[in-house]
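Lab notebook, bench 4. The sequencing result for the construct came back, and we need a structural model before the next group meeting so we can plan mutations. Quick request posted to the team channel:

Model the 3D structure of this chain.
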Amino acid sequence: MKTLRAPNGQEHARGRKIEQRLYDLLVGARDAGSIYTFLQPDALALNPDGKLFLIEAKGQSLFVAPPFDGHGLPLDQLHRYRMIHAATGITTLLIVWDDEHVWRQWIHKLEDGPHFDTKGTSTGKRRIYPVTSFVQDAAGA
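Done. Here's the predicted structure in token form:
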């Protein structure tokens, strides 16, 4: 098996352009009615039991209380992940890197616990979950 290497700067920039083109293509397909919705997860993985799951990775600063310190994701993105889960049973693992820790938890488990929605910013409303609802890994993990 061939060993993979990290992309160089030029390859990385080309990859970002292709991701944007794919996004634009999917928006067009959605607007034309040929697909209902879409999302671009950061990874698709297979667990040891043979079940597929999605991974959504975030790099963000800790949301500071009130009502609690936490992390989260945009509501529109959350709704699409929940829609995919309801339609297919495929779950999503949210992994968040902040300045000190790496946090991870299944979105459906986060939804079963405490959470709140922000009032919104230029990037829209976000759903925040308390850090106590996540499993904490060492920084840089």
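The first strand starts at residue 43 and ends at 46.
Will bring this to the meeting.
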